[in-house]
Amino acid sequence: MIALEQYTTVSYKNKKIRKIKDKRKHKEALQAWMFIGVGFILFAVFMAYPLLKNIEMAFMDYSVNPNKPSTFIGLNNFKKAFLSSGVLGESDKFYLALRNTLLCALVTVPFQWFIGMMLAVAIESLSKGKMFYRFLLYIPVISDWLVVAILFKYIFQDTSGALVNSILLNLHIIKEPVMWLQNEWTANIVIWSLCIWKGIGWVMIMYTTALQDLPKDIYEAAEVDGATKKQSFWKITIPLLQSRTYFIITSLIIGAFNVLLQVMLITNGGPMGRTDVLLNYMYNKAFSSFDFGYAAALSVIMGIILIVISVFQKKITNNAKIEF
Amino acid sequence: MKSKLNQILKHLILLFMVILALLPFMNMITTSLIPNAYVLPSEPQIIPKQFYFGNYVAVWEGEDFGRYFLNSVFVTCITTVLTLIIASMSAYGFARLNFPGKNIIFNIYIYSLMIPAILALVSQFTVLQRLNLVNTYAGLIVLYVSGGVAGNTFFLKGFFETIPRALEESVIMDGGSRWTVYRHIILPLSRPALATMAIGTFSGTWMEVFTALTIIKTQSKRTLPIAIKLLQNGKATQWGIIFAASIIVLIPIMTIFILFNKQFINPGGSQGAIKG
């Protein structure tokens, strides 16, 4: 009997404590929403909802005309992209844009990464002028994509007086001016070189901050043990920078999928759509042909590719985390 | 001796890279200072030999860039201020308070960052249409601010978490509210991060093309990037004019970069660098 009484009072006390705790939790949640509320509503209405609506639109023959209803057409938009349908089908254009997007990532990411990293290491080892080089090499990064895309179109014009042709002619690398923007591969080279030229500075700064965070005592210990500078670079620096490297490479890949202005302003996909990339193809489908359903399907395909890349990167990074 | 040679060699390579990075800009500046650069000159112009400002006058007055410049200043400043307020409050909520669904919402924020913003543009347009906000600055600014919520919350949350909790616990003990903590401890201590974020938001908004192009229809409401894109469509071969306009767009960004270059290229925290 006594035991039972004790039991009930204890449970009563517990309940009271829980109630106070719940109240406190409740209050905290309310306060939290006062802080995050506005941002969350804006995000939900103007980012999340449009992205979700995109998914819905991908399964519809979406009509811009309010009097003509949109109809549900299942996977037709996706079939249009993936399955070939005759000579003038969209799927050829889709595969071309997909190929160019993947090629852009494949070509520009390693160059940006390697050159940027080497620059960061070289500048960090200088005794004088570190800030000078970082400052000047960062100028392309902060410049407007719109402006530098127009600028690259200009320096790659096909006359012999254009900057790039003129330099190559003077160095006797080419004998006559190259018509850069008229051919599939030379036009792609122009787009790639713009991406590389603009991205190097960003990689350099990302590695610079990582290098400055490295613990100095490990290098001292390595030196005491007789390691050469080269050895400590490959055996200490590179492994310690690994998680930063994954982050940089994923950002660069996502950046390559974001290529749009470059293509739109320099070639607009020409000649004959041979340099088109996914975003430009999608943008034109939406805002020139008003085929919103198909454009939405393309955006879903891209979204899936990017999320897969990011999840993959997160897995690798978590496995490769080195604590120091 | 050997290390000295090594240093000189490094300087040479780096100077070469600097030339590669800056040569196109030199070419652009010089071209903007030549009258009637319709036809490409027979040799690339790198060092200005004359200082003809006719192209700038033509762009500023003839093409109405003075007005577009003010439009851009207005939209960009409002966006930056609103983003600072909303993102810092939101980041404080995620950094210091617990509430149901916190991790889910935060993860959704992170994943949304991987998706190119332009993919949402079509549906964003339909949402604004329903709210009667198409062709208004309110609509444009709301899209800019909403687009920045996730990324900036993520960035500032990381910074707020490095601020020691002891400071604010004493305020709470003394009966201070969360708002006091946010306003008088977190904000003053995060000035460098807030500055980095403000600069990033300012330059990102200043240069944004596609949303502006889709939302703004009236000519007098155009922002600078739209004006340049349309100028490039219309006067594709008048390079002097186009580059004068381009340089007008670049000047504010370059000024910020020169004044605050440490925020860009020598950030104290490891994730401070601003990506263009």
Task: Describe the fold and architecture.
The complex is a heterodimer of chains A (324) and B (276). Chain A contains 13 helices and 2 strands, in the order H-E-E-H-H-H-H-H-H-H-H-H-H-H-H. Chain A is mainly α. Chain A has 2 domains: 2-58; 76-319, MetI-like fold, CATH 1.10.3720. A two-stranded antiparallel ribbon of chain A has the order 1-2. In chain A, helix 1 (2-58) crosses helix 13. The termini of chain A are far apart. The relative contact order of chain A is 0.11. The model of chain A has no long low-confidence stretch (mean pLDDT 86). Chain B has one domain (51-265): MetI-like fold (Orthogonal Bundle). The longest helix of chain B is centred in the N-terminal third of the chain and has 32 residues, at 65-96. Chain B is globular and about 75 Å long. The chains are: A mainly alpha (324), B mainly alpha (276).
> Could you give the distance between the termini of chain A?
59 Å
Strand content of chain B: under 5%
Report the CATH superfamily of chain B. MetI-like
> Which CATH first-tier class of chain B would you pick?
Mainly Alpha
Q: Into which percent range does the helicity of residues of chain A fall?
A: over 70%
If classified by CATH, what would the architecture of the largest domain in chain A be? Orthogonal Bundle
CATH fold description of chain B: MetI-like fold
Order of helices and strands of chain B: HHHHHHHHHHHHH
Specify Rg of chain A, calculated over alpha carbons. 28 Å
What is the first-to-last residue Cα distance of chain B? 40 Å
CATH topology of the largest domain in chain A: MetI-like fold
Shape of chain B: globular
